[in-house]
Design a protein that fits this description.
With 548 residues, the chain is of the alpha/beta class. 24% of the residues lie in helices and 18% in strands.
């Protein structure tokens, strides 16, 4: 069976405001993305995911959309967007857009109309309820938003409350209204007609709600976990999170996408494995992919990655396909979890690009960009402003990036003052990192053993060896800190070996004979012993791919 292109691709997330500033106003833009397409092609990634660049007041940097059919003038215009799509395709690459369909901005014309009066034709396009108790000044129920705040927001103009799953300036659309559904599906078709290859769907599991609007039951846990956002903030979010209507909407949206062959959907959803598979559909007729977020909170141990691989092979065996992501714009950068250690970062890259699944890179991963510890005072992130009194150490202990600005700093292209991102660093929307210490593209391109070179080699290998992006994945026993697995496809086999230990490790390969096709360290080698068997030597925090 032939695989579809998205099943063997590698996705690269671009945060446009921070990627490349083409007009030196301190904000990255779409023209800047176009200017860097040759670089992305040279790197070897195949699919570009762009965070939102639609018209927006910018309170949540584009995730608060005021017009789905217009472009934020800070970032570009429709002509530039069309040219970007064409330029991506001319290089044999794909482009997917971040699509926020759970909510709009309060500045969207639909919401302005909706809040204007009780009998406005757009009133039912959002979720409005009367309050409880005398005067209606108590929220309709106890639902909490995704970020722990009260989900209901009082609007004095009509003495009623609107619901928001994220922040108060992002009112939820009413997906139980057929007019809303038609308008949103038509909008999706508009962008598909423009040529985009698919969509990353923001907080898709918030779309459906229990239409009786009962209280959520109490649950004795506050902080969310990567695989369990249903039980947090002292609630079992039974009625407003992962509701069955959201699974139904996944299937309906998939039917829209399938009107355009070769397009796909990847959903930002969370929950246990059973929940994730319901979004994918029992007949694989829902979302094409969903994010598995366990790797955002990985532990750098053999046990963690062994357990993760075994779980993915058990719960998401073919025809399901996992996603592999260490970093993103909300949760921070993976390298910061290993204290910016480059050897460990190379090993993480090896795993991400050889485990069965679709890798999702975040801009700067390839050069080892880490989280930048920016002060809460002066933050542009609305979450940081709302939770400014929470100590950073407490949020970090709970696995939460309190100030998302930390993971959104400008791309480091060079060691120059503006890091090649802008010629006016004093105007940069977020501070450029003061010292790159070799963590920039220009420096690493000239260094044969750099992290960037490792990514280039691994991405090239994924294309050359179909078994790395299509084959089965089978764990094999290994001693101590060494993890080993086989990738197999169409009669070919490759062995991946990773040393998580701080000392040199050895592996008796026994009867396995092969050729070293990738190594993250020059020390790694295969030696023949006197009895004719081969022994693999692995440097600390390193790994190899051996074609058997």
């Amino acid at each position: 069976m032939n695989k579809l292109w998205w099943q063997s691709t590698t996705i690269y997330q671009i945060y446009p405001r921070s990627f490349q500033d083409s007009d030196n106003d301190g904000v990255g833009d779409l023209e800047g993305v176009i200017d860097r397409l040759d670089y992305l092609q040279q790197l070897g990634v195949e699919t570009l995911w762009l965070s939102p660049f639609y018209a927006s007041p910018g309170q949540d940097h584009g995730y608060d959309i005021s017009d789905y059919y217009a472009i934020d003038p800070l970032l570009g215009d429709m002509e530039t967007t069309t040219r970007l799509i064409e330029e991506v395709h001319s290089r044999g690459m794909k482009i997917i857009m971040d699509m926020v369909i759970n909510h709009t901005s309060v500045e969207h014309d639909w919401f302005k109309q909706s809040r204007s009066s009780l009998d406005n034709p757009k009133r039912g396009w959002y979720i409005w309820k009367q309050g409880l108790q005398s005067g209606g000044r108590k929220p309709p129920n106890n639902w909490r938003s995704m970020v722990g705040k009260k989900g209901w927001n009082y609007d004095p103009a009509t003495d009623s409350w609107y619901y928001s799953s994220f922040l108060s300036f992002q009112p939820d659309l009413n997906w139980n209204n057929p007019e809303v559904k038609k308008a949103m599906f038509d909008m999706v078709r508009f962008w598909l007609e423009k040529g985009v290859d698919g969509f990353r769907l923001d907080i898709f599991n918030c779309l459906g709600k229990n239409q009786s609007f009962p209280d959520n039951p109490f649950y004795p846990k506050y902080f969310p976990k990567p695989d369990d956002n249903d039980h947090c903030f002292w609630q079992n979010k039974l009625h407003n999170f992962n509701h069955p209507d959201s699974f139904k909407l996944a299937r309906e949206l998939r039917r829209v996408i399938d009107e355009y062959p070769g397009r796909f959907l990847i959903g930002e959803v969370s929950g246990n494995d059973g929940v994730l598979k319901r979004f994918l559909g029992e007949k694989q007729d829902g979302l094409n992919l969903v994010f598995q977020f366990e790797l955002l909170h990985f532990k750098f141990t053999k046990k963690f990655f062994k357990d993760f691989i075994l779980k993915m092979e058990r719960e998401f065996a073919s025809p399901y396909l996992p996603t592999l992501v260490y970093s993103n714009h909300d949760s921070g950068r993976g390298i910061s979890r290993v204290k910016n250690n480059l050897a460990k970062a190379k090993l993480l890259a090896l795993l991400q690009l050889t485990i069965r699944g679709v890798p999702v890179l975040y801009y700067g991963d390839e050069i080892g960009m880490g989280n930048h510890d920016l002060p809460i005072k002066g933050a542009t992130d609305p979450l940081a402003k709302d939770y400014s009194r929470v100590p950073k150490w407490l949020a970090k202990a709970a696995g939460i990036l309190l100030n998302r600005d930390d993971a959104r700093t400008p791309m480091q292209w060079t060691a120059a003052q503006g890091r090649g991102f802008t010629e006016t660093p004093e105007n940069s929307w977020l501070p450029v990192i003061p010292h790159t210490e070799g963590r920039d593209v220009e420096t690493q391109m000239d260094e044969p053993s750099s992290l960037w070179q490792s990514y280039v080699q691994l991405l090239k290998l994924r294309k050359e060896l179909p078994l790395l992006n299509r084959g089965d994945c089978k764990m094999i026993p290994a001693k101590k800190d060494i993890l080993m697995y086989l990738r197999q496809h169409d009669g070919e086999t490759a062995l991946v070996a990773a040393n998580f230990g701080s000392r040199v490790g050895t592996v008796d390969l026994g009867s396995m004979k092969g050729r070293l096709v990738y190594s993250s360290s020059a020390i790694n080698q295969i030696l023949s012993s006197t009895d004719g068997t081969d022994v693999l030597t692995l440097a600390p925090y390193s790994g190899v791919v051996i074609l058997l």
